[in-house]
Amino acid sequence: MPRTTRQTAVPPPARRIVVVLVAATLALSGCAGDSSTSSTAMAASQAGGQSAPAVSALTPDPIEWEECGEGLDCATVEVPLEYSDPDGEQIPLAVTRHRATDPDRRIGSLFINPGGPGVPATETVAAIDPDSAASLVSPDVVERFDVVGMDPRGVGESGAVRCLTDEQRADQAVEDRDPTVPGGKRFGRLLADARTFTDGCLDHQSPEFLASLSTDNVVRDLDQVRAALGEDQITFYGASYGTVVGAMYATLFPERVRQMVIDAPVDTSLWLNDPLRLLDEVAVSNEETLDAWFERCRAEGADVCPFGDGDPEAALDVLIAELEAEPLDVPPTEGVTPGGTLDGAMALESVRLAAGHRSLWPLLTAGLTAAQQGDGTPLHFLLAQATVAPFGAPFATLQEPHTAVRCADWPALDKLSEHHAAAKRITARDDRLGSRAAYSALNCALWPVENEDRFTGELTGAGAPPILVVGGRLDNVSPYHWARAMTERLEGAVLLTREGVAHTSYRTSGPCIDDAVDAALIDGVLPAAGTVCDVPPATTRPPAAPAGAGE
């Protein structure tokens, strides 16, 4: 057994809530024209003979930056739609960098992928504030690196996938769901919705574009951006789904990796080969974090956690039933929520979201207590920020690219019997949050295109430097055993464990995690195997009312 080194973190300032929900919900450098002949050959042997399309003949033009904000530059890079036809159709990719604040000590470019799939990396980079404790990366990292974000094809400013009209999106946002029914609606309605969605994808995008959105193409795109920057190697930080991107890059282009950190890893074997099991395990993790909130609420007592007066489970069940029978009207609040109604299904989605991150537990207590008293505004606000897709894709804007990427990556899911069986397994557990998870891959069952050359090889990162894997003991999206599996699969990887509840750890869990990640990125120094970072116990105590409130 490895020696365990335990350190204690102090609580960091809370991130702006949208950043917590999306990003934490939430590769590339070399001489232009010197891409990847050797790494492609290596990838072929690691994939059991499956060869990734070669890109060695590509020589991207040097990137041309334009200043687009304080310390920021923006650019567009053209890449092939299909790398098997490098001289064929080209597509534009949006790239943003935050320049190193200490250029004399600059190490190189740090590429980040905040996850999703579907979260725009350019927006994440544009939000970096070197003076803010809520920034995605630390001031030390911003000093030493140009932080670069590329919106993957089909995401953000790189041709974001669109499948629904504005009216259809609005209808879906307010449609009635039933938490007692798998998937929230009768299966016939779910199937009709999936048909509307997938038909709309073809109405807005070409089949060739939809088929090209796989992660293996994304990492080839990243390597083209690296070459356009004229860098030999990259440093990379990926969170959540971004860990699939990182592991894929380290496998296809190991000699291009300077250092890499992956945070809240996805089990890449499940992602590429057994997505219905993957989604089932996400549902289990959702429930485990809610159970952790229940346990903490009971332990702190009714004086601290007033919801349920010592029995929060029973109180939640009663509240959800009452809200389903008689939803609460939520008036609009300028700058907070557009208003609407709060029913039981909507309240459960807010609970799922807030239970998954310890910094939101006080808001969960406050929201549930307010709803008991007839005020649905706090839970409705949480719902407005909610991520309904498993890997950080807010339903209002990112569900479409999220779905398109995973359907391009995943094996065919066109047998409805498999979806019925998966939904039956989830609902048989009788979990409070299981309804939402059932049939969550149904769009892929009707996906209108096939990705005939998707990469299915094992992602081992052989030949890359040792990778730091950061896993949380309780993570509502990426269960801890996924972090262990990723560490075992990646050759030479080291696992850093975070205690407590959260999705992703860097910049949300205190200096023990932050210092270890910074040391890996900047100096290539990894912590001792078995290192565990404690975080202070989370509280369920509702936040204090602002001074003057209610006057």
UniProtKB/TrEMBL annotation:
Gene Ontology MF term list: hydrolase activity
Domain Peptidase S33 tripeptidyl aminopeptidase-like C-terminal: start-end pairs: 434-533
Compositionally biased residues, Low complexity: 35-56
Alphabetized UniProt keyword annotations: Hydrolase, Signal
UniProt keyword Ribonucleoprotein, yes or no: no
Signal peptide: 1-32
Region feature Disordered, mapped onto this chain: 34-56
Start and end residues of each AB hydrolase-1 domain: 110-296
InterPro entries: AB_hydrolase_1 (IPR000073), AB_hydrolase_fold (IPR029058), Pept_S33_TAP-like_C (IPR013595), Serine_prot/Carboxylest_S33 (IPR051601)
Family: Belongs to the peptidase S33 family.
The protein's name: Alpha/beta hydrolase
UniProt organism field: Promicromonospora aerolata
